[in-house]
Amino acid sequence: MQNPAPLSHETAIVTGASRGIGLAIARSLGRLGARVALCATTAESAQRGVDALKADGISAFGLAADVGSAASVRQFVATVHAALGDASILVNNAGVGIFHSAHKIEESDWDRVLATNLKGAWLMSREVAPQMISLRRGHIIHVASLAGKNTFAGGGAYCASKWGLRGLAGCMAEDLRGFGIRVSVVCPGTVHTEFSPHAGKDPSRMLQPADVAHVVEMLVLQAPQSFVSEVDLRPTQKP
């Protein structure tokens, strides 16, 4: 008989988890039995995520952290470790999008996008990796974007961060595979969330947060002898 809670021995950290894709991923992992820690930008948003999962019968742990700050990430991971033990699943989903022509974007906006989307994934992974190494197993999943493969006007900072995230994921996979740690990157197309409204597009044809969560679920339930390094996710019909 299929195990209804195959992740019951796992602790999962999900960043950007108060809503949208991150919350859907946290919900999916929680339903599979994982102990879930939510990372959000504020304590209030983290608690909203915890409350949303609680309404679905999922117990979760939520904290605020600035993923672009090494000190903040270190404190977050230490607190989660004390409460839930070694993390064996990390989903780097936190992201921001600021869209301006590359020659017009302000330095502060450039820094914010790169610090959240790329540096944040590196800092969180760097902090959690030693726990996975001690376990000799684990999953690090970076949520990137098809914008990490395709360019468009006004996307200089965002595309740079997502292209960089794919490069980081590939290198980390080589660094960590010998320890039984699988590093993957998920590249969704347009997802219907509050992150970025898409005027003129039919929401019913767009990807939904649960679609991304389903991919993450498949990745963490892979057989141990292999791993999927990258997944491109597109809607069946163009929105």
Please describe what this structure looks like:
- With 239 residues, the protein is α/β, with parallel strands linked by helices.
- It has a single domain (11-233), classed as NAD(P)-binding Rossmann-like Domain (Rossmann fold, 3-Layer(aba) Sandwich), CATH 3.40.50.
- It contains six helices and seven strands.
- The chain has helices at 20-31, 43-55, 70-84, 107-135, 156-176, 209-220, and strands at 11-15, 35-40, 60-64, 89-92, 138-143, 181-188, 230-233.
- It has a seven-stranded parallel beta sheet with strand order 3-2-1-4-5-6-7, with helices on both faces.
- α1 crosses α6, α3 (70-84) packs parallel to α4 (107-135) and α4 (107-135) runs parallel beside α5.
- The chain is globular and about 45 Å long.
- The model has no long low-confidence stretch (mean pLDDT 94).
What topology emerges from the helices and strands here?
Elements: E1 11-15, H1 20-31, E2 35-40, H2 43-55, E3 60-64, H3 70-84, E4 89-92, H4 107-135, E5 138-143, H5 156-176, E6 181-188, H6 209-220, E7 230-233
Parallel strand pairs: 1-2, 1-4, 2-3, 4-5, 5-6, 6-7
Helix pairs in contact: 1-6, 3-4, 4-5
Short description:
Helix content is 43%, strand content 16%.
* Named CATH architecture: 3-Layer(aba) Sandwich
SS summary, helix count: 6
- Radius of gyration over all CA atoms, rounded: 17 Å
Sequence of secondary-structure elements: EHEHEHEHEHEHE
Low-confidence stretches: none
Strand portion, in percent? 15-25%
At the first level of CATH, the class is Alpha Beta
Mean pLDDT across all amino acids:
94
How many distinct folded domains?
A: 1
Q: How many β strands by DSSP?
A: 7
Order of adjacent strands in the largest pleated sheet: 3-2-1-4-5-6-7
CATH superfamily: NAD(P)-binding Rossmann-like Domain
Q: What's the main sheet like?
A: 7 strands, parallel
Rounded to the nearest angstrom, the distance between the terminal CA atoms is 39 Å
- The helical percent reads 40-55%
- The CATH topology assignment is Rossmann fold
Could you say which structural class the secondary elements and strand pairing correspond to?
alpha/beta
**Approximate shape:** globular
